[in-house]
Amino acid sequence: MAAWTNISGIRQKIADSSAEEVTASYIETIGKSKINGFTTLSDEAINTAREIDANGHEGPLAGVPIAIKENISTKGLSTTCSSKILQGYVPPYDAHVIEKLKEAGAVILGKTNMDEFAMGTSTESSYYGPTFNPWDMNRVPGGSSGGSAAVVAAGEAPVSLGSDTGGSVRCPAAYCGVVGIKPTYGCISRYGLISYANSLEQIGPLATNVADIATIMDVVAGYDNRDSTSINRENTYSDALKDDVKGMKIGVPDEYFGEGIDENVEKAVWDSITKFEDMGATYEKVSMPHTKYALASYYVIAMSEASSNLARFDGTRYGLRVDGDNWHVMASKTRAEGFGPEVKRRILLGTYALSAGYHDKYYLKALQVRTLVKQDFDKALANVDVLMAPTMPAPAFKIGEKIDDPLSLYLADVNTVPINLAGVPSISVPCGLSDGMPVGLQIIGKHFDENTIIRAAYSFEQNTDHHTRRPPEVA
Amino acid sequence: MITKEEVEHVGWLARIEIDAKESDAYAEKLNSVLDYFGQLDEVDTEGVKPTYHVADIVNVFRKDEVTESMSQEEVLANTEHKQEGNFKAPKIM
């Protein structure tokens, strides 16, 4: 494990020695890894670090290594969405977030494993094989940004980027005992993110602590005219790093503590809320009555958007091609061979939900339910500053436990998908253990009020030691 | 209920070849998910407007200006199937 697990420690080390030494240390750690968190390592990382040393460490992230999810385009570096259909694809351009990280002096270590096309909660559906949870190699790291969370937990990268469509940053953050944020929809440009469900997904950072999350947000958030949903709004996230929740009102939605919740998870989250009370906050129970319908609404919308977004992968211009006598046969054979079972299931369901005769029954209905879910958030957050709930209802499950039962896998997302439907920001922070596995506390805020959830998360971190726990094999 | 014939038809619409042996297994798994989606019928959505996007943005335009684009070489860099500066594909019609 590299010796420096946070950005301030790394920057101090770079000042004392060099960016090259820090990058080399992480590459050495990755070389010994057994978790299969990286899919590709960058050949340029050491050269970039040397250039940063030569240029006097300019930029807020000068020399700081970062890992990038396999669905975020990186010029000259493999970007396959962990799918056979994009095997060998090397983007000719950088995503907006990568441009910003490079401007800030970050060193891109490589690309991280994920559920194929970001569809999943376990990182088992990757063409590159599963990533293993560094806390227990028999368990999943969560998904779909499982690689991005696991490498941070294992000390193979201090920070990483993931993407969150229905909980894909917060779920693996909770399962791996790290911090992850899903920002407000429109807060970070999605230019260069290979889209799965474009009305729901946001890029979000993962780190070992809240201060590093704020630092990365300061760099990557902001307006980009190449993303038509990008919002032009200035903010400095590190301004929120204050140990102060006095007078903060917390709402606790009953519906997020539903049937099937692990009793240790429930206890850890309630202990956390009690801790907030000790720190000067107050809480009240709130009701969000449409929560039980959010999961079905989410999956109809996500699959419908996926069926459209993934239509571009046909073997004509990049990636896998299976030959056929005409274009239709070529595309059909290529997609049958190139997509894995879960991606095919979602495309088929999305195509069915949008087809003649079913559009209103499934897709339109799901969008109407989305409105009601969003109204639940508007009403609940009108009276409180933040909402708190478990990120995941149970700790990480065993590898293979749910892979053949799609519906049981979908049910794991019950506490994260409503947030994406409403587009509000949410952060997951470590708040305890259940049978030795990490538990995540989810703090949800109003649109563009990231600073309040960051302040709450930072205060919690300053007054507890959950975030200091490392996986037993790594510590 | 989605039948195996419908699975094959949806596969054709989605450009994913599904052989007869696979379609039974797909139908079973797709039906369990569609059953779950059926719970949306319980919700009274009379008069509720659909939310397509949460961002309060409409009609985002940019200026109609010519900007630099990628070179033909870059655009073709990810395929072996090219000829005289074009992508090479089998007949479409």
Question: Can you tell me about this structure?
Answer:
The complex is a heterodimer of chains A (475) and B (93). Chain A has 475 residues and is α/β, with parallel strands linked by helices. In chain A, 37% of the residues lie in helices and 13% in strands. Chain A has 15 helices and 11 strands. An 11-stranded mixed sheet of chain A has the order 1-3-2-4-6-5-10-11-9-7-8. In chain A, helix 1 packs across helix 2 (19-31) and helix 5 (146-153) runs parallel beside helix 6. The longest helix of chain A is centred in the last third of the chain and has 25 residues, at 359-383. In chain A, 63% of the residues are buried. By secondary structure, chain B is mostly helical. Chain B is built from 3 helices and 2 strands. A two-stranded antiparallel ribbon of chain B has the order 1-2. In chain B, strand 1 (82-83) and strand 2 form a beta hairpin. In chain B, helix 1 (4-13) crosses helix 2 (20-37). Chain B starts with a helix and ends in a 6-residue tail after the last strand. The model of chain B has no long low-confidence stretch (mean pLDDT 93). Chains A and B meet through helix 9, helix 10, helix 11, helix 12 and helix 13 of A and helix 1 and helix 2 of B. Chain B: Residues 72-93 are annotated as: Disordered. Chain B: This is Aspartyl/glutamyl-tRNA(Asn/Gln) amidotransferase subunit C. Chain B: Keywords: ATP-binding, Ligase, Nucleotide-binding, Protein biosynthesis. Chain B: It catalyses: L-aspartyl-tRNA(Asn) + L-glutamine + ATP + H2O = L-asparaginyl-tRNA(Asn) + L-glutamate + ADP + phosphate + 2 H(+); L-glutamyl-tRNA(Gln) + L-glutamine + ATP + H2O = L-glutaminyl-tRNA(Gln) + L-glutamate + ADP + phosphate + H(+). Chain B: Belongs to the GatC family.
